[in-house]
Structures are given as C-alpha cells and as structure tokens.
Design a protein that fits this description.
alpha/beta; TIM Barrel; nine-stranded mixed beta sheet; 13% strand
C-alpha cells in the first residue's frame, strides 16, 4: 500500500501538521479538538477474542452526546468517529444520532463489527466518509460479513472508504487461510484497505514473532491494499496526553453514579486491559469538555506512569516538542 493511503487510513502525526490552526489554538490554551470519538453503547452482539472490554449495560443518553457535539462543533470540531466500547450500531437511537452529527456539518466515520448494517436507514448508511469493519475470526465470520455487506453496498456511496481491521493474537493457526478469507471480502466488496495489527498487550517478543509470520504469509499475496501496522507500544515520555486535547473520547462509562458518560483520553484505556481502574484515566465529566480542552482542568494523571503500552506515544511526545515554548531560533529549520 502506498504511503499516502496508509497515512489517510490511520491516525498519524502528519494529520496534526495538516491542521496548523489546531496546533496554534493548543499553544494558546484554546480549543484544539479536530476530531472526537463517541462510544455510545456498552453492549455488543459478538465475543471477540482480542477484545477484553467487559459487556455492560452502560449507554450514553442522546442528550449527553448532543451537548458534547454542540460544545465542540462551535469551537472547531471537524469530525466524529462512532466506536466502542460495545457495538455502536446496537445503540437504540443510532439513526437519530447520525443525522444530528451530519446536521452539524461534521464528517463521520464508524468502527463496527459489520453485522448490523440493517439497523441503519438509507440516510444514515449513506452518511459516512469511511467505515471500518473489525473482524475477529475470519474463518468463521467472513462469509456472514461478506454476505451482509454485499446486500448493503448499493446503499453505501462509492465515495465512502471501506476498510477491514484484523487483530492477530497468539493463535496463528491457519493464519494464511484467515488472511485469504479477509482478502476474499476485499476483492468481492471493493474494500479500500485491510489493516492487520498485533495485540498490543502481547510481549514485544510475541508481537515480533507474529509480525514475522504475518510477513511470511504476505510474501505470496498482493499487498496493494494491506497495511501491516508496525507501531512501537510504549509509555510516552510526556506527563500530559496532548493528543486527548485534539481528539477527546466520549465514553459510555459513567464518571460517577450521578453522571452519564465520561471523557477519556482514548479508547486504548478501555480496550485490551483486564481489571483496570478506568476512573484513574477519566479526564472530566462530559459537560466539562470545554473546560478541559481550554486547559481549565488540570490533566489528572501521567501517561508516562499509567500508559505503558500506549499506541500513540510518538504522537504525544512529538506534540510536546512542537508546543515547547522555550525553543529559540525557530526560523532556522
């Protein structure tokens, strides 16, 4: 896959540099949120092996999401990603939510397991700039997802980019068959990309071993649409998650017994962690989002201490350097 496509279909530092107004706003302690994650639903209809998110009955109230979107859209927000948590298409008011997001002239993406597109009406399913389908077991799930997706393609605009994400864990039995199953969807449904990654909570040795085996399988396959992520999961050097000011995460997990939802730095603190105290990572209540992004709330924890397997450490540390005010001779590149 070309570099430009890989950068287009992933969360990359380059995208921050393409939003210089947001960087300037951040330096000046103003709202810099360009994109927001919204996780409306805590329940899911599947049991994915790599996903350690506990199924819950937590759910965001529509008014909570609307207030969050209203606050940020008036201050420069450009896009929203519907994600989980649980499966976002299980959200009872999903069609109303999608229409509200688009009414605010925001671009929209979704991360879904791809099994519930029938819950979307024609307007909603045509509202996405991109759709990413997460596949757990390609051998078992691909046929069903392929058939479901085929039935929906006529309702999805050709301008919408569709991708597939596959997290490869330690179970690499029939790995070649699994990847070929995924590629069968790619060929039959005009998928734009396939992203293959390793479970971030494996050891470094385990991840490297799996990457070698994936690379060997891919050596005999057309890789024009394949992205093999090669991220280094490590703790940021920074004591502040700068990324969360540009891309806050509205979670369905309650801040406290009186509050619907919470603001988290990212979805990584929810996914793949067993027995983690999520409250340590909560940034603020949903109705305090503007106070947070305007830096009127102190960052409550140190990523350097709590985020030992951070997926975005390079972005966070680079943002710290970019916003460092003590650097002189900035004109001498």
């Amino acid at each position: 896959m070309s570099i430009s496509n890989e950068l287009s279909f992933s969360s990359s530092l380059i995208k921050y540099l393409h939003n210089p107004y947001a960087l300037e706003s951040y330096i000046n302690n103003k709202c810099s949120a360009v994109c927001a994650h919204v996780s409306p639903e805590g329940s899911c209809n599947l049991e994915c092996s790599y996903c350690q998110v506990k199924k819950t009955t937590n759910r965001l109230e529509l008014r909570t999401i609307k207030k969050f979107i209203d606050s940020l859209s008036r201050n420069g927000l450009k896009s929203v990603i519907l994600t989980g948590g649980g499966e976002p298409l299980l959200y009872p008011e999903i069609n109303e939510l999608i229409k509200y997001i688009k009414k605010n002239n925001l671009k929209l993406g979704i991360i879904t397991n791809g099994t519930l597109f029938t819950r979307l009406d024609d307007i909603s399913i045509s509202s996405f700039e991109w759709i990413r389908i997460s596949i757990n077991n390609p051998i078992l799930n691909c046929v069903n997802i392929l058939n479901d997706l085929k039935k929906q393609l006529h309702r999805i605009p050709k301008t919408c980019n569709i991708g597939i994400s596959y997290v490869c864990g330690t179970n690499i039995v029939k790995l070649e068959e699994k990847i070929n199953k995924i590629l069968s969807i790619t060929n039959e449904c005009n998928i734009d990309y396939v992203r293959i990654s390793t479970d971030r909570f494996l050891s470094v040795k385990e991840m490297n071993d799996i990457k070698v085996k994936i690379t060997n399988v891919l050596s005999n396959i057309d890789k024009s649409k394949i992205m093999l992520t090669d991220k280094l999961y490590k703790a940021p050097c920074s004591n502040v998650c700068h990324r969360s000011y540009f891309k806050p995460y509205l979670s369905e997990i309650p801040y406290d017994e009186y509050t619907n939802g919470s603001i988290l730095p990212c979805g990584c603190v929810v996914h793949g962690r067993d027995n983690v105290d999520i409250k340590k990572y909560m940034l603020c209540k949903p109705d305090e989002i503007l106070k947070f992004v305007n830096k009127n709330i102190c960052f409550p924890f140190s990523p350097n201490t709590l985020c030992d397997k951070c997926e975005y450490s390079d972005i966070i540390d680079t943002l710290e350097y970019l916003t460092e005010s003590n650097i002189i001779h900035k004109e001498f590149l």
